[in-house]
Amino acid sequence: MRFSTRLFCLALLGSVMLTGCGKKGAPHAPGPASAITYPHSYPPE
After folding, report:
1. Which listed site, 13, 21, 36, 41, has its alpha carbon 20 to 30 Å from 5?
2. Where is this region: Disordered (predicted)?
3. Secondary structure percentages of the chain, helix, strand, coil, to 5
4. pLDDT value at position 40?
5. Beta-carbon contacts of residue 29 (< 8 Å; ≥ 6 apart)
6. pLDDT number for residue 6
């Protein structure tokens, strides 16, 4: 196998592996919604 073919396969494999590392959807705070205290107004009233 030629060096350029190996390099291409290695780059392709690396990009496919990194694709699975991300999270899906918008970020949200853990736990029940009733227990979330942030964000709140500053200064506290």
Report:
1. 21
2. 24-45
3. 45, 0, 55
4. 65
5. 36, 38
6. 94
Nearest CA among 20, 19, 38 for reference residue 28: 38
Distance CA 32, CA 12 (A): 40
* Residue for token pair 């350029």: 4
Q: Which two tokens stand for residue 4?
A: 């350029």
| Distance between CA atoms of residues 22 and 36, nearest Å | 24
Instruction: At 13, list the tokens.
Output: 């494999």
> pLDDT for 1-43, tens place per residue?
688 999 999 999 988 887 777 767 777 777 787 777 766 666 6
Which amino acid makes up residue 7? L
| Tokens of residue 7, six digits | 């390099």
